[in-house]
Structure formats: structure tokens, C-alpha cells
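so my prof wants the structure for this chain in the C-alpha cells format not the other one, which i didnt know existed until like an hour ago. anyway here's the sequence
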Amino acid sequence: MGRWICCPCSRVAGSLMLLLVLALSCNPSTAATASPSAPHIKPSYSFGRTFLGLDKCNACIGTSICKKFFKEEIRFDTWLSSHLKLPPSYLLSYSGNYTDDAKSWRLVDITRLTSKYRHDRADKRICTSLLKTRTCSLERALRRTHRFQKWLRAKRLTPDLVQGLSSPMLRCPSQRLLDRIVRRYAEVPDAGSIYMDHLTDRDKLRLLYTLSVNSHPILLQIFPDVEGWPFPRYLGSCGRLVVSASTRPLRDFFGSAPEVAADLALQLLAVLRSMGTNDLNYFFYFTHVDGGTFGVFNNGHLFIRDASTLGIIDKEEGTRQAPGPPS
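here's what i got, hopefully its the right format
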């Protein structure tokens, strides 16, 4: 019998996007602990562009849910009245509340793709390397890169445009997977086409930035929970913050009653089975697993909480079958 061999993925030398990846590369579960002490916290109801990361757009994730923040329809758990302060900006994630009608609220997770400290350090490193200054327009700097110039000219997202990005999802990208990313990219109003004609230059930069830093929000968008995929629902982004349905990390259930542990173990096996066998013929694999990789909703259902370490092999297009031994 033959065996599946992943397609080769070479790095593009000299790409500044690689510098971004190297500067941000870290284990998300430990990023926040590596940060310095918290900066001065601004008082209530004053998000500021810096806290959200809007001051770095369009080198950011998106702006689809910003209105919810400014209309106070997304609130942090510790920020429900005018005399309270915003939570510390150096944290990696926050618990929040989300509403559509100002009456009923539901829990959400508000997260950064990596810690603000590492974001800031990477931003400074890019400016220093490209423009030889400590401060600069990050967007202008990234727009000058060879990779982004190729993105601007491209009509379709192809494997050569993402080669060298460190996301496990893109180590062996198939054209079918990349088409799915463009067609379901939720930070643009006119998704649905595999061609990038509906993406503005700004949209292309945001998509490239997200794929370069952490593909977690992209996975939530292209494999939505409403279609049965075991991921929390993606609700939107604002600057460098992502909002998704809330789950408790699996580590919180260590030491649970035997019947609870047995139920979660069975659910975990079912999730792992679906990652290898599904109707779309994608094979998902983990490059890293810890107590925060999986999460549990309030109803007891287990999901993949952190998709940043997931790799994908397309069993239809992204692989080739090696010849077997002579018969």
C-alpha cells in the first residue's frame, strides 16, 4: 500500500512577514506570563484605540464587531458600571458578556492572538528592521513587503502566497482549503467567491496579518459550529481582539466526578475521530495539546477551544500518494 506524503512547503527568504512570525512565535498558553507589569489603566468606558489595537489597523484582525464594544453591547465581566476600569491590557484573554437586545446576555471569550507585549515587541522590530526607526506606520511597512505586493496582484489565494507562514494550518495548503478561506472570510461584507475581487487592499492585509500571527479565528470562520464542526462560534473582531462563544478550559474539569470525566473522555474521542474522518475529507492534526486546547460549554458539550495548533491535510488535493513497493 502507498502512504500519504504532505506537499513540500518552502520558506520565502527575505520576507518581512517571516520576521513578524518569528517575533510573535510563542506558546499562547504562556505568552501572558512573559509580559511586563501592567501599564496605566484608563478609566471606565474609554477603550481607546490602543487597548483594542485599532491604532495598528490595518495590521490587525478586523473591525466587524467594534460597534458592539462602543455601544456597550459587549462588556467585560469586571466592567459593568461607569465607575469601574477596563481590565489590564497585558492579559491574553478576558471573560465578557454579549447582547443583541440589551436584555438577554450571554458569556463570550475576548482574546488576543498573542499577548499585547509580544505584539508591541514585534511591531517595533518590524519598524527597526525595515524603516530603521523605532516608531513607524506598521501598515505602511508591511505594505512594502514583497509578499504583500504579490497579494495585491493576485486574483486568487494560491499556495505560493502563503508559503513560509508558520501557521500549522498552512504547512501543506491545498487550493481547495485556500479557496475556502477566501470564500468564508467573515471580516468582509461580500464573502462567497473563491476569487479575491471582493477583497480591498485593506482586507487583504488584514487576512494576511491574521494568517501570519495566529490562524485560530480563520479556522472558526471556515469550519463553523453551525455546520457541526467542534469549534466555538466566531462572533467578530475589533482591532487585535477576537470575540467568540465562551467555553471553560478542560483543565478546569480535572478532578471532576467519575461520571463527568467519563462523559468528557467519550466526547474527546468523538471529536478526535471527526478530525480524521469527515465529509469534507480534511485530516486535522494537533502540533501541541495542553489543558487549554479543549473547552466545555455550559451545556457540557466539549469543543476545541484553541485551534491555533491545528494542522490540516487535504486528503483530496493537498497530498500525493507515493508509489508502493513493487508487487
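also thought this was worth mentioning. Residues 15-244 form one domain.
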